[in-house]
Amino acid sequence: MTGIDTDLTASVAPQRPLRSLYAGNARSVMVRGWRATKSTNWLVVLSGFFEPIFYLLSMGLGLGALVGTITTQGGEEVPYAAFIAPALLAVAAMNGAIYDSTWNVFFKMHFAKLYEGMLSTSLGPLDVALGEISLALLRGALYATGFMVVMQVLGLNLSWWALLALPAVLLIAFGFASLGMAITSYMKTFQQMDWINFFMLPMFLFSATFYPLSVYPQGIQYVIQALPLWHGVELVRGLTTGAVGVGLLWHVLYYLVMILVGLVFTTKRLRALFLD
Question: Cα(175)–Cα(34) distance, rounded to whole angstroms?
């Protein structure tokens, strides 16, 4: 009798569909976002490509004529333009990835209600997270590739190791996109979103972008070395100037952890917002 009651209860109880965490279709999310970007936001994308080039021409070539050479962390003397160019390359990847993974995601989440529609299909939260992060990664890759060409034309790639700078930049973009989307998933107002720009500006200015780390007091150096952009700048600068060593692997590990943390928090947050 107990078995019959159990079967009857199971038959009349509401069957909650099992929602997959990952349906293996992140590509569709990325393609949809890319098509939307091409049709509405291509001018914004184009402007982001020229921004680091303007910095390079004004600071690297203009100010560089007055500064001369800079001594890197490894003790090498390099022209000032060759010193800041890899830093601006890392910044370009960061900016491209952050824009798509923060403001675009914020609009899709709170105004377009896009993710609710996506997650009502077979797509899972990890599909959405990977798709949006891949879109941001693509934008960062476009910026980086164009800037690498400019660096090569100006003779600012001082080593054959610079060929690995593009994969390094993709790693940087992936890290910032993952963390950016994770942070944005907790934001509820435009005022909160402004904090992202508040933190990005000091990173841009103080991550050894324009000056060697040694010019700062020791206490400030520790703070700078904790910033994600500093690790990206040091990684790309080491490759483009030929200062390659085992120490670069620590920068790679930093971004791998950053990617993992971002994906985990983004997936959990999307699931909590739209599925639970």
Answer: 20
